[in-house]
Amino acid sequence: MRIGFEAKRLFLNDRGLGNYARNILYGLVKFYPESHYHLYTPKASKQYVNSDFISQETIHVHEPSGWLNSLSKSAWRSLNLGKIAAKDDLNVFHGLSQELPRDIKKLKAKSIVTIHDMIFLKHPEFYKPIDRRIYYSKVKFAVTNADHIVAISEQTKNDLLEEFRIAEEQISVIYQSCNEVFYSKRTPEEKEAVKQKWGLPENFLLYVGALNENKNILVILKAMNYLKGKMDLPLVIVGNGEAYKARLKDYAIKNDLSDKIIFASEASNPTPFELSSFYQLASVFIFPSFYEGFGIPILESRFSGTPVIASNSTCLEEVGGANSLFFDPSNYEQLASKIEQQLYKPVFTNPPTDFMSQSISKKFMDLYTRIYGI
After folding, report:
1. How far is residue 138's CA from residue 132's CA, in Å, rounded to a whole number?
2. What number is the average pLDDT over the span 185-204?
């Protein structure tokens, strides 16, 4: 089978959408090496992509060619990609990040789009009006013109059904996996190397993800302030976002918590292999978002065997499983109680096999085969 992917974020994004794309492609190539995978991207950077993956004969990377396409890479990807990809005789084209090219009907292949979340509708206060309009326009066009839709959680599926006139059978829920490096335990030497490189304390709370209003990291600091004198574990934060980080630092200064907050990414962003040690060294992982489409860090933590506390908003209970602890994201006292509970009697959970890379890859290949056969 010849499968095409809009792969900009696979090459250029080091966060959720990029990880989603890489994890899917790595799994498909590993478990279905007989198929050919065409990756369309305005730029093929190797910064976030495994070199062994790119070098395989079944991987075909397509970038803009000619002076006109090179000058307008956005138009190449968003407006003309259907016509461009039609030359590659694809069976299926998959838009991995909530959009399809506007000329998708010029492509004879069946089209699939993954919708990650509808945060811009559920929490418009986190977005500029122009950004909300752009995101809505892209999602509406994609779900209206795709032959099939993948939602990454039941929550996202329900949001789509609520907002758009879509037949339920047109949507498949396929959960994400995470990098397989999180499946295995690090050696004491590997963990010690990470501990020394970042100056990590013996015991700590951990947050991994972007730093912005929706991620709600401030509630962790409020819980720490509430627990001051009873529980004084530091918080290690792995992630970037300068404006929100400034708010966190300001709160820490005003409440004498500065010596309890470690911004690990200020020293260096850990590789996935190094990040797995962060999880395995942590006492508790906390994911306090107001809204998520999925929540890959929760999965990474569960594979790492680290106790999880997450907000009870949207889909996080789908990802966290029955043994993770959940709290109201606006209630720091409730979070404080959950932190104490996990520290005194930690709950470790193993992720279900449905989240394993091989299982996810099979679901996608079965979907591609079924859609192509329609």
Report:
1. 10
2. 97
Could you tell me the CA-to-CA distances from 13 to 47, 138, 339, 349 in Å, in that order?
Answer: 9, 19, 32, 29
Rounded CA Rg of the chain: 21
> What predicted TM-score, i.e. pTM, was given to this entire model?
0.86
Over residues 332-361, the pLDDT tens digits come to 999 999 999 999 888 877 777 778 999 999
Q: List the one residue out of 223, 214, 220 whose CA is nearest residue 241.
A: 214
Q: How far apart are CA 142 and CA 112, in angstroms?
A: 9
The pLDDT of residue 31: 95
Question: Cα-flanking dihedrals φ and ψ of residue 190, to 5°?
Answer: -65, -40
Does residue 200 sit in the same domain as residue 307?
yes
Q: How many domains does the chain have?
A: 2
Do residue 35 and residue 171 come from a single domain?
A: yes
Domain match, 207 and 343 both: yes
Question: Is residue 75's pLDDT more than 90?
Answer: no
Rounded Cα distance between 158 and 163, Å, is 9
| Count of all residues that appear for the chain in the document | 374
pLDDT at 86 over 80: yes
Rounded CA-CA distance 209/297 in Å is 7
CATH number for position 216 = 3.40.50.2000
Per the structure, the complete domain to which residue 244 belongs is given by 180-352
CA distances from 107 to 100, 110, 120, 148 (A): 11, 8, 29, 15
Residues 158 and 191 occupy one common structural domain: no
Q: Output the pLDDT for position 234.
A: 97
The two most distant CA atoms of the chain are separated, in Å, by 66
Tokens 């509708």: give the residue: 121
CA separation for the pair 121, 106 (Å, rounded): 30
Residues 96 and 191 in one domain: no
Res 33 pLDDT > 90: yes
